[in-house]
Model the fold of this input.
Amino acid sequence: MPPEGDEQRDRRSYPDQVRDREFAIDAGTSALALAATLLMLTFHGFGTPDPGVRDIDAVGILLALGSSLPLLARRYAPLTVYVLIGIATVAMVQLAYALDAPVGLVFAMYPLAMAYGADPSRRRRLAVMVTAAIFLPAMLASYAARGGDVQEIVPAMLSWTVVFAGVWIAGDRARLRRVHLAELEERAIRTDREAEQDRRLAAAEERTRIARELHDSAGHAINVILVQAGAARMLQDRDPERSRRAITTIEEVARTTITEIDRLVTALREDHGIEPPAPAEPAAFDDLLERHRANGLTIAADICGRRRPLPGGLAWAAYRILQEALTNAARHGPGRADVALAFRPDAIEITVTNPTVGRGDAPASGGHGIVGMRERASLLGGTLQAAGSGGTFRLHAWLPERQDAS
Done:
């Protein structure tokens, strides 16, 4: 069991942890600048001590604090921090303290470049750059004002100018890297959001398709039950055996339909659609024909071509179209249908022809069953024609086999 302190630390948010880490870095930077400045003031600079400089005293300590402590706020007010440290640094030079290196100014330059390196206001960016550059000449002027030999410190000033320029460039590069990382993070968040939207859209489309499957399956089952129930009623006295078989068929169809409805409704309740098992094997079409034969429909079937497993979407569409066509033949005809099922190299072709009773020559272009079959064919890039002529109803579907049909 972890200690209570570890649990509290783990519960801290990531922004709080980042702020704590940044404060620790700024505190360390400020302490380093203060220590370096105090050492220079105490030992009269680096290298050989200069007897002409001023010894460290209370004023020197205060100026050293002024050139280092503001670094604690360098991330929040970089320009103000830089100006305050620059004033303290120039004051130390003016008062003849041994300040060989403006350490505080170097540390303050980095966040200044990060904050204003790409300021949208050109005038403000120029003002900041002038402000950043003015303190080195100011130190040179202060050194000259107190009687120092300017030629002695010109090389050091040029060196520190190069250092300041390098720090500015480094800060600006860090800013560019931070902007790039922020853009990548925003792009990743946007990609995740778009992916989630695509997933939800796909789930909604899948639910619609499953609902359509539920409608077709239930409609087919109810039609079969109606036909078999009518047959059982008419044959219950004349042919009890066939009546019992019709009732058995009703029971089997009802049980199968309940199972399928339960599965489809479960899929609709889930966050994502569940693909119903597609009758990809060719034997599924034989089973469908035999089931309708057992229900009393006389079927003359002609299956040609190389029989092969079909992609899921194509197999399911062909199966449903054939099922709906046979159901219509049983419902509206005298109980006979001719089925031609052709396995083409790049498509599957379905033709169902059956005589009609009381339909005349009117084309069968309406009805949810025909509309649903035509929609299935259209989604696959195929065609479906259904029309009645001369007392015969003919349905023809051509479904292409494509890679995206699965």
Q: What stands out?
A: Residues 271-278, 360-366 have pLDDT under 50 and may be disordered. Residues 150-235 form the longest helix (86 residues). The longest strand covers residues 347-355.
